[in-house]
Amino acid sequence: MILLASVLLALLMGFAVQRGGTCLVAALEEAVSKRRWSRFRALLETSLWVLGGFVLLRAFDRLPMVPMGYPLHWHAALGGALLGVGAFINGGCAFGVVARIGSGQWAWLATPLGFLAGFALAGRGLGTTSAMPVAIPDWLQQVPIGLVPMIIAALVARLGWLAWNRRNGSTAASIWSPHHATIVLGVAFLLLFVCVGAWAYTDILAELATGRFMELGLRGLLLPALFAGALLGGWSAGLWEHRWPTPWALVKCLCGGVLMGVGATLVPGGNDSLILFGMPLLWPNAWLAFACMCAVVVLTLWLARLGRG
User: Fold this and answer.
1) 3-class SS at 174?
2) pLDDT digit of tens for each residue in the chain (309 aa)?
3) What are the angstrom distances between the C-alpha of 184 and each of 19, 44, 176?
4) How far from 303 is each of 263, 296, 297, CA to CA, in Å?
5) 3-class secondary structure, 12
6) Which residues on adjacent β-strands are paired with residue 105?
7) What are the boundaries of each domain within the chain?
8) Phi, psi dihedrals of residue 134, rounded to the nearest 5°
9) How many CA atoms, within 13 angstroms, populate the side-chain half-sphere of residue 72?
10) Rounded (10°) angle between helices 110-121 and 247-266
């Protein structure tokens, strides 16, 4: 039963990412070029949804074991910067890769291969953050019960507001708004966390690259399910482009993936892991890495616009 539920939730995550076109690079490009922050706010809102879910699970004593974090370290800043450069070269972040593959843009299949190479390279030659665990934050261990009704009320109000806007909006049925997509993504992640524990697809790639595939167990099945969900989302919405890769596109995606893999090893964690896990748990290195990644992506987008101008 847990196996079926977990696979279905991973499918739903991939489906939501594809339907919403979820991608940090796309969100920041929209902010730089159009001064619109809707996609970026939606990604941050995902962390808030997961944060609220963690608090509720903890309050009702249903929170699974939470992996320990890492102390603040300069590796996180460097890793975040590499994540940003890699995502810019690749043309999409970890979420964006899933969305593009789900749309039939096959060049982005090279990005996970680049991730694997980057993880293997960093694990062998560059060294990683010292594994000095930080205890689960006190605020999560000592959640006041009076906070629970407020969180539930806020979540219900937000859902009602989004449902009202959806009913009265003009968004095509084949495309979800960023906020709807990230809500589904956050809730599916929380349920999956209850089923199998901490899971992000870049973390699975890291374990594969470092020879720990025997430790994956059920979580190993979720990686193909995630991409199958994205493909289902693209096919069911008629969004398949069947864009066959050019050699240049393959090189860009592979190189971008390598840099993102190295960066994720240094943080540690890819941007999917940061948004869905590290940031909701208020781990300092996750917030530092995310801020550095955003800053580098914005800077590279701005420089690219200047170069074209």
Assistant:
1) coil
2) 788 999 999 999 999 999 888 899 999 999 988 889 989 999 999 998 899 888 888 888 887 777 667 778 888 999 999 999 999 999 999 999 999 999 889 999 999 999 999 998 887 655 444 444 555 677 777 777 777 788 888 878 877 877 777 666 654 555 678 888 888 999 999 999 888 887 888 988 888 887 766 566 777 788 899 999 999 988 887 767 777 889 999 999 999 999 999 999 999 889 899 999 889 988 888 999 999 999 999 999 998 888 776
3) 11, 14, 10
4) 21, 10, 10
5) helix
6) 243
7) 2-308
8) -110, 135
9) 6
10) 40
Q: Do the Cβ atoms of 265 and 123 come closer than 8 Å?
A: yes
Q: Which amino acid is at 2?
A: I
Give, as one character, the DSSP assignment of residue 92.
Answer: S
Which are the contacts of 172, defined by CB distance < 8 A and separation ≥ 6? none
| Inter-residue contact 88 to 301 (CB < 8 Å) | yes
Q: Which amino acid is at 221?
A: L
How many CA atoms, within 13 angstroms, populate the side-chain half-sphere of residue 31?
19
* Residue 268, preceding peptide bond in cis (omega within 30° of 0): yes
Asked whether the bond before 144 is cis by omega within 30 degrees of 0, the reply is no
CB 59 within 8 A of CB 216: no
Burial classification of residue 11, based on how many CB atoms lie within 10 Å of its CB (0-12 exposed, 13-18 middle, 19 or more buried): buried
Distance CA 18, CA 239 (A): 9
**Six token digits for residue 264:** 């994720």
Listed in sequence order, the residues at least 6 apart from 56 whose beta carbon sits closer than 8 Å to its beta carbon are 148, 151, 152
| Displacement of CA 83 from its chain's centroid (Å) | 12
Tokens of 149: 């009704």
Cα 259 from Cα 194, distance rounded (Å): 31
Q: Which of 133, 296, 115 is nearest to 200 (CA)?
A: 115
